């Protein structure tokens, strides 16, 4: 049986306008008091850590998900260690992103994060071996932050950046949909190496209908239009890609500005997965399901070069069973 998830909260940190260094800084997670970090001159990197010993809410949520999906086979419950993969996650502090990172850590897949505020990694993921989790500081809006060294050794990318659809505190410093969903994605796509095995971009349902009601309301400040532009640049990049378009996101962490989402969210029940193509699917989807769809897409060949809408409804789902996800993605293409 699916179990309820404990809600995960992201600290409500302000996003002040700030200047970032021209060259990226790699931040390994080591042992220091929470929220403290220092310059390590010998490695030209900053070292941070927290006292929560790795038992972060996001990790806990993902472990809950894996251990309570009764319809997964025992083999697939604990995905095999993929030491050859190095997955760069952009937006890894966000609602979907932190579940992606936690899930990678849980599977022993090496993760690399590009974060505007690397301290958040410590809060969310606790103490992690540098072999498992590397953190770079950067803002996708600033092309100069996307130094090629960030991508060295990376085999796969999952981009789940975003901001609010409507003006909010999270737009501070000009972090608007135009800057994040369009310029940020464009900057990223333009520097990603062609050797990557897969780039997964989290977009949204409705991006092809931003001029039509009710989508035009959501698009009042351009979020759907800019997400579509971000999709298109990836689609035309020559990179091996998969685009995941979630419906309205549910389940913690409740980072959405949309109060309706907060009120409607039910934790941990929406595990049955619906996948569509052609931007016809309308509904809601658990962030856990979106995170799992992104990770599954990395390895499922038939998702390459494809765009999928993803919803979830109450009921048992595929959990982390790759075969079940493959069937779902295949069935969507057969419709
Ligand atoms: N909410 C919905 O119902 C809904 C529906 C469909 C699709 N989506 C899309 O689904 C995706 C995931 O949504 P979510 O609610 O889980 O995301 P979220 O919590 O809003 O997280 C967004 C992430 O993007 C990062 N980010 C924002 N601006 C950035 C920048 N300039 N440079 C680097 N990173 C930046 C944030 O980092 P910081 O920690 O630095 O802020 C955060 O990690 C988003 O693309 C969202 O638009 C959402």
Automatic annotation (TrEMBL):
<feature type="compositionally biased region" description="Low complexity">
    <location>
        <begin position="67"/>
        <end position="84"/>
    </location>
</feature>
<dbReference type="InterPro" id="IPR016040">
    <property type="entry name" value="NAD(P)-bd_dom"/>
</dbReference>
<dbReference type="Pfam" id="PF13460">
    <property type="entry name" value="NAD_binding_10"/>
</dbReference>
<dbReference type="InterPro" id="IPR036291">
    <property type="entry name" value="NAD(P)-bd_dom_sf"/>
</dbReference>
<feature type="region of interest" description="Disordered">
    <location>
        <begin position="63"/>
        <end position="84"/>
    </location>
</feature>
<feature type="domain" description="NAD(P)-binding">
    <location>
        <begin position="91"/>
        <end position="299"/>
    </location>
</feature>
<protein>
    <recommendedName>
        <fullName>NAD(P)-binding domain-containing protein</fullName>
    </recommendedName>
</protein>
